[in-house]
Write a structure and sequence with these properties.
Layout: H1 2-9, H2 11-18, H3 20-41, H4 50-64, H5 67-75, H6 77-99, H7 105-128, H8 148-183
Length: 184
């Protein structure tokens, strides 16, 4: 809950209105820090459902980054919160599926790899796009020394590189489950 408060009550939330890169960090914190912590705190789920959870979290993340919907969420408080809750909920489901004691360690490892891949692909697309995709941020990044394209590239790099390392850390934990399963 403290991390959620930091994300939504601290100056980071306000900064995310100006900088797309701050919004990228905001989403990264929700998906790879808050959601796994909530998933860990909840009782284990009965089944794995890894494929469905991966599909839902991927769909929500990519939908959030569709420029028209992103702009609509930026202009509507209700849609903004619906999308934030969808992001948190779908990634909590994803991490619960991965952490489920009923999920095979290999499935967990493959699901984590797929999650890292889809987030990395979205990050790469944002980083390598030749023009800014999110006009709603306009020139708000200029006082921070970034033009809109560089702001978007920084957001993409955050989703691409640091997220890959975080997913990698979770993959190491899943790989340890694979090692233990081999000796049981």
């Amino acid at each position: 809950m403290a991390v959620l408060a930091l994300i939504f009550v601290s100056p980071l939330c306000a900064l995310a209105s100006a900088l797309f890169a701050a919004r990228g960090f905001h989403h990264l914190a929700i998906t790879v820090i808050v959601a796994p912590l909530i998933a860990y705190a909840l009782p284990p789920q009965r089944g794995s459902g890894s494929a469905a959870a991966l599909g839902a979290s991927t769909g929500v993340l990519w939908l959030w980054h569709w420029p028209a919907l992103y702009t609509a969420a930026f202009e509507s408080h209700l849609l903004y919160w619906v999308l934030q809750l969808a992001l948190l909920g779908s990634f909590t489901w994803f991490w619960r599926a991965v952490m489920s004691p009923h999920a095979s360690p290999v499935t967990a490892l493959m699901t984590i790899g797929s999650g890292a891949g889809q987030m990395g692909l979205l990050g790469a697309l944002l980083t390598l796009a030749p023009t800014p995709l999110y006009d709603v941020h306009g020139l708000a990044s200029l006082p921070w020394g970034l033009d809109p394209l560089r702001d978007q590239q920084l957001a993409g790099l955050l989703m691409w590189v640091p997220a890959f390392f975080v997913y990698g850390a979770y993959a190491i934990l899943a790989a340890r489950r694979v090692d233990r399963a081999a000796f049981e």
